[in-house]
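S.,

As promised, the zinc ion run. Input:
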Amino acid sequence: MSHALSNLSVDGGRLWRSLMDLAEIGATPKGGVARLALTELDGEGRRLFVRWCEAAGLEVEIDEIGNIFARRAGKNPSLPPVMMGSHIDTQPTGGKFDGCFGVMAGLEVMRTLNDLGIETEAPLEVIAWTNEEGSRFPPCMMGSGVFIGKLGLAETLAKTDEHGLSVGAELARIGFAGTRKATGHPVGAYFETHIEQGPVLEDEGKTIGVVIGTLGQKWFDLTLTGVEAHAGPTPMRRRKDALLAAARVVEAVNAAALASGGHACGTVGYMRIHPNSRNVIPGRVEMGLDLRHWEAENLDALAAAVTARVAEIAERTGVTAELTPTADFPPLSFDPECVAFVRAAAERLGLPHRDIVSGAGHDATFIAEVAPAGMIFVPCENGISHNEAENAEPEHLAAGASILMHAVLARAGVVAA
Ligand SMILES: [Zn+2]
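Predicted complex:
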């Protein structure tokens, strides 16, 4: 990059105003946003984004799963586009920044390049992926999943919400059932900025997280079956208490993750107790286990340790245990060149940064399966997200968007004036 471009930054005030304007659509009284995928409000947010893109001179296309692509031409139209993006759907009690930051940062990069009259070799695109949250229509990362061919278009369009409304019908209703083919598009590279959704950057006083990859995940359903019996007449030693076994499993999952160290995470996030009555010894418990690790072999070892402990606990408590794997995502490393562009940009702009691993999946995790990809994290207040209290500093968001711009220019190539 030429010297004149070396300290470029985006317009942080304009980025912030766009985020705040978008957050008014579906704003909650507690300061958050409830804009679930493919609702009327999602449609309104999408239309605002499209208007802004068109005002910035971008060419907008909608694909068959409702992903929105806004393109800025490059000097060389035969090159595959360098993409930026994230999502604008939220959780029911979501915040203003999760996802929206990545999309608004991409738009702000386009606006800044327009202001400065900078032309790139490769075309650029900013994308709002459909239904990243998966809250109304599981699974999550739906739009990017269809884009890379991991999720089938027809079966995804047929997915329904709890009222029986389908993805396809709701896309049509809000006016975003597009005609561009969902799959088969070459990707030069993909960059996504996102709030960290964890406390590490804030704790260490870093502005930029250079994301090197995402944790692998293994999910299990566990059913523990004992014997329902009266809480009074049944002596302690005669009980087959499924909830007692479940409590020990919760403890064991936590202990196994702590013992595994590093980036290991182990969580029991839900439990259903049968019959769930005060004076009945629980006869059955269904629960969900979520294990994560950065190294595949350590994730395997963590899963093996938990599996062994579950068997042991079942034996000791006299219950039967049925452990069923429900998801298995290997750890993913982002493209070394994309990661290096992000790190170099942070250094060039003199921003405090550190390498970081994402504990959560993002659209970038899917795109990385088919193209070079990288991510940029910025701190969020107290590490909180998926919460109406989600918050981030305007200057951190501006810094993240500037890093995005530098990484994208490095990858796309700048046409010399
Ligand atoms: Zn997100």
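The domain at 3-214+331-412 is CATH 3.40.630.10 (Aminopeptidase). The longest helix spans residues 296-317.

- D.
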